Amino acid sequence: MKRKGLGFYLRIYRKILAQDIKSKMSYRADFIISTIGMIFTNIAGFASFWILFRSFPSINGWSYHEMLFLYGFSLVSLTPVQCLFDNNWNLRMYVYSGDFIKYCFRPINLFFYYQSEVFDIKGLGQLAFGIGTIAYSWSRLGLAFTPIMLAKLIIFLITASLIMIALQNAAAATCFWIQNSFYILDLATRFMDYARYPITIFSPVFRFIFTFVIPIAFIAYYPSIVILRPDEIPLLSWLSPFIGILFFWLSYKFWMYGAMKYNGTGS
């Protein structure tokens, strides 16, 4: 069988995306209410920093606007997970019901076919809020804005997104072996919430865990250091892009391994 290239998958994805957006826009009230809810959730996170820093001028050497930068960085890097990989939340239900078998007989990549079926357009509101937060904190910190800085920002945002996607892929794929896999996926998502905080505020034990076991420090902290503190960049920050690619590849292989072992019997 002839191997299909990137152009083929882009054409297929464009068609799937158009159909999915049409179906979602037919329920406009649901879309509007969900988007407003997501915006208010992000505003609440923004406000929590403001309330916290009214009592403390800094947290372990991190200022209010640096923390805001981390928060905005984590929101933007979460957008690809929210928009493109939201179907991971439905994976366990397809597996348990036996309906996942329908994805196994198409002559295209199984992972692509399953993930492309859902596009969560509400994530675009989160993207706009995150970009606004980054821009605001960037200006308040007086950071230089040059083509090189912009390139670094984009590269390390992609890096952070790959780590987030990898964590969700791996957690979701446990449903191929574990019946109550929802709790693993939910736990992984809750761990991602810690990505908006600098790793230096945690104890040495949690620093190790969040760096080498559950690598959430690579979602915002290590990538952001390159922008925020260019004079004290640790080696792990420069390694972030390679770590992001590695973890995404491993999570993809893990997801596909579980899918290939699926026998379609359901729960």
Notes on the protein architecture:
It is a single chain. The chain has 267 residues and is mainly α. It is built from 11 helices and 2 strands; from the N terminus they run H-H-E-E-H-H-H-H-H-H-H-H-H. It has helices at 6-25, 28-55, 64-84, 91-97, 110-116, 123-141, 147-173, 182-192, 204-213, 221-228, 235-261; strands at 58-59, 62-63. It has a two-stranded antiparallel sheet with strand order 1-2. Strand 1 and strand 2 form a beta hairpin. Helix 2 (28-55) runs parallel beside helix 6 (123-141) and helix 3 crosses helix 7.
Walk across the major sheet and give the strand order.
1-2
Structural category: mainly alpha
CA-atom Rg in angstroms: 20 Å
Contiguous runs where pLDDT drops below 50 for at least 5 residues: none
Percent of residues in β-strands: under 5%
Helix content range: 55-70%
Largest beta-sheet characterization: 2 strands, antiparallel
H/E topology pattern: HHEEHHHHHHHHH
Number of strands: 2
- In whole angstroms, the N-to-C terminal distance is 33 Å
Number of helices: 11
Shape from CA axes?
globular
Query: Mean of the pLDDT scores?
Result: 85
